[in-house]
Amino acid sequence: MDPANLDLPVLVSIVGQTVDRHVLSAVRHVHPGIRASHGYVFQRLLQGPSTVTEIARDLRVSQQAVSKLVKELVALGFVVRIPDPHDKRVRRLELTNDGRDAVDLARRVRAELAASVAAHLDVPAARAVLVALLEAAGGLDAVREASVPLPEP
Q: Cystine design at 95: which of 27, 84, 99, 152 (Cβ 3.0–4.6 Å)?
């Protein structure tokens, strides 16, 4: 099948999945055990130390789901539990140096992909097409209202 013959929404979906797999594969070479779902917690913790409750609220998922991810991230050495400075009963979560390194590596891999693509197309025009597709699919509000910051370039 020739990708040039796919309709734009299907092609964009495949591209997104492929980029995610590429970035995850590169990060796993340095940080084995990392999963795509961990990225949601990473993005939230980039804002600073947070509780499981705060992360669950912002991600709009259950505390149980976040607790499971956090347990994995602590075991992998990406996240550490720290005491809350105002309430010793509360445990906050914070990225470790390895966690920050994984984020930095993912950003570098995405930047390399972006540079490679930019050499072959008009980036502002491509971005305009993708934003138009996002708007047509009803996704602009979700991006604008994201309670967790979107990945930085």
A: 99
Alpha helices (runs of H) in the chain, residue ranges in sequence order:
8-30, 38-45, 52-59, 63-76, 97-118, 123-136, 140-144
First-to-last CA distance in the chain?
31
pLDDT, one tens digit for every residue, the chain (153 residues): 888 888 888 888 899 999 999 999 999 999 999 999 999 999 999 999 999 999 999 998 999 999 999 999 999 999 999 999 899 899 999 999 999 999 999 999 999 999 998 888 888 888 888 888 888 888 878 777 765 565 665
Q: How far is CA 14 from CA 17, 72, 77, 138, in A?
A: 5, 28, 31, 19
Nearest to 70 by CA among 47, 86, 54: 54
H/E segment holding residue 93 = strand 91-95
Cα gap 38→114, rounded to integer Å: 23
